[in-house]
Amino acid sequence: MNFFLDIPPATFWNNPSGSNALMIRLALALLIGIAAIFVLLKAPTNYRRPIVGVVTFLSGAFYVMLYLWPVAISRNKGIDAPRNPVEGVAFWLDDAVPVVANFTSIVTAFLLGLGVYSLLRVHGRKVMRKETDWVFSVVLLSSMVLMVFAGYGDWYSRLDPIKAPALELRENWGPINYLRDVLFEGMLQQMDAAMFSLIAFYILSAAYRAFRVRTIEATILLAAAFIVMFSFMGSVEAAWGHMVNPSGNIDNFSNNFTLTEVAKWIRGSIQKPAIRGIDFGVGIGALAMGLRLWLSLDRTGGKS
Amino acid sequence: MYSSLPPPLFANLWLGNQYRHTGWFGIVFVLTMVAFVLMNIRRAKTGRNLYIRRIAGLNAIDEAIGRATEMGKPVLMVPGLSANLNAIVMQALNIFAHVTRIAAKFSNPILVCCNDAAIFTVAQEVIRDVYQEQGIPESFDPDSVRFISDRQFAFAAGVSGIILREQTAATFFLGEFFAESLIFAETANSIGAIQIASSTQITQTPFFIAACDYVLIGDEFYAASAYLTRQPILVGSLVGQDWSKLLVIVSIMVGIGLNSFQRINTKYDKTWKDGQEVDAPEHTRKASETFTYILLNPQTNANDADIPAIKLRPEDKRPELPLNERVTKTDAEAPK
After folding, report:
1. With an 8 Å Cβ cutoff, are A73 and B19 in contact?
2. Are B163 and B146 in contact, with CB atoms under 8 Å apart?
3. Does residue B54 surpass a pLDDT of 50?
4. Which of A23, A224, B192, B213 has its CA 20 to 30 A from that of A61?
5. Residue B324: how many CB atoms within 10 A of its CB?
6. Is B134 exposed, middle or buried (0-12, 13-18, 19+ CB in 10 A)?
7. Which of residues 122-161 of A touch B (CB under 8 A)?
8. Does position B13 have pLDDT exceeding 50, yes or no?
9. Which one of A188, A286, A291 has the shortest CB-CB distance to B88?
């Protein structure tokens, strides 16, 4: 099994599989990683924050640069050569994007272990002490182990380049492939769908409370909701349309008062501008928050 | 089809035509907003008293925690279902730190449910810090911050189960919520919990409004930490955001005026074809031929609302790498 597959095309960020250059880069990366952890552990507490700040700034600077630096258009990767240093940097940034994105995946993979540890601790303790509903914790832990076993077994069986195509057909499956299919497609996906379908009932109960006519705002909301809902109901829409515009002439002024047109006006002229306004606020807020994090201006925890 | 106008500043002098499509207007606009935020942070640091209006949902935090303390039930916090650690999650954790601080003062139990391992790790550290800062590190229960699942509806089922089993008295749903928002809100509503919620996903805000007691709408979510802590940096940043919103409003007004004027009063005897301005019969300007449209859609061919594939002009063609330096799919397939 080749763990060091090279990512085509060759760039600053990768090397041919098994080459000395790749091994040297791997060794260097490992050394830098160990040195970084050592420095962080040995650094006095009051230096840790600046160190983290510098790392945060450099990581953020990559994406800021990616946004600000002119993008080279119509690049034929692996074949085109840059024409000037500016384009050279654009190529370098372009090649680095998947690599930098992988950094995040690698860190997240390490952190997943902590997440699983949390699950094991909370539910393991529940089972050991036989607290209320401990049986559910047993179900959770055993399904987790079973799913990991079935998932890896299925994945491993599909690694063989000769046998893998045959596994596309169900009749060539082994027990492990069936087990994974039953657990994932047969149970997990179906339970997901069941949870999703609950939303329909929750919408009904929430809508009942929201639409109770108590205030002027609730009344306006109720009227708007009815117009939009009726505009989707063919028979009601047709009956109303025939009443306001019996000729069915689309150039007739009264055509503006069909349910479809009124609903379109409500959505296009009232709802959409309001949503855009909120979107602007959210976007600008995210920009300011991102800026504070990037420049380490924010103290997480927001001490008073 | 080649890239169309307008060129970025100095593009022809410095970089060549291939960079025209990147558009300078968006970059200048963002940098202006960044400048507003940084400038106001500086202003706030000098001690200026900057005003923040009252936000009902944030005033209710004390009430919610007080109720939980009276009932002896935990306070539940969910920082959304973001796929990874981002600014939205950090903002939610900032607010949760404040909530935890108040809960810690009254020795009220808390629960934080996370859907992502990275968020879980950071949330655990933030909450631990709060207890340490309050001088009661021994009160911090590591199990109060939990990783539930990274699957959307498994997470929804897990959190709903916790709400029902623990009978949480107050719930805070702040962050990025999707279809599961109503499952959380209605479950908590069914047990009579006091709820404060906010979703940066605008489609979920109506669900929260229907089911929760208090909802932070839009950028109120980002104003929360400034409102609660009154830190100069946060307050300055908030005022910077307001200036940026004013800039957006002014731009929209100018754009409406300019667009209307051009479409009503100006004739045009050219059109855009393949990124080039070519002669055409005189006509009233189409929306896609106005200054604002071309300014905001620099990569779009003015005749076509869809963004076309942008190609280099023949004269801008790049040199090719030497054959021995090229790699296509694998080493074996590379030309020797």
Report:
1. yes
2. no
3. yes
4. A23
5. 9
6. middle
7. 122, 125, 132-133, 136
8. no
9. A286
Judged by DSSP in three states, B271 sits in strand
CA proximity to B226, closest of B217, B236, B240, B218: B236
Q: How many CB atoms lie within 10 A of CB A63?
A: 14
Q: Write the pLDDT tens digit of every residue in A123-137.
A: 999 999 998 889 999
Collapsed DSSP state (helix, strand, coil) of residue A15: coil
The interface residues of chain A toward chain B in range 35-54, judged by CB-CB distance below 8 A, are none
Taking a C-beta distance cutoff of 8 angstroms, is the pair B208, B220 a contact? no
Is B84 in contact with A70 (Cβ distance < 8 A)?
no
Average pLDDT over chain B reads 83
CB atoms inside a 10 Å sphere around CB B274: 12
Q: Is the pTM of this model over 0.90?
A: no
Please confirm whether the linkage preceding B6 is cis (ω < 30° from 0): yes
CA distance A70 to B8: 10
List Cβ neighbours of A254 (8 Å cut-off, separation of 6 or more): A244, A245
- First and final CA of chain A: distance in angstroms? 55
| Length in residues, chain B | 336
DSSP A7: -
Residue type, A39: V
**Strand, coil or helix: B78:** strand
Is residue B139 within 8 A of residue B122, CB to CB? The reply is no
Residue B304: which pLDDT band, with cuts at 50, 70 and 90? very low
Q: Are strands B145-147 and B170-175 parallel, antiparallel or unpaired?
A: unpaired
The residue written with tokens 């800062």 in the block is B133
Structure ipTM: 0.83
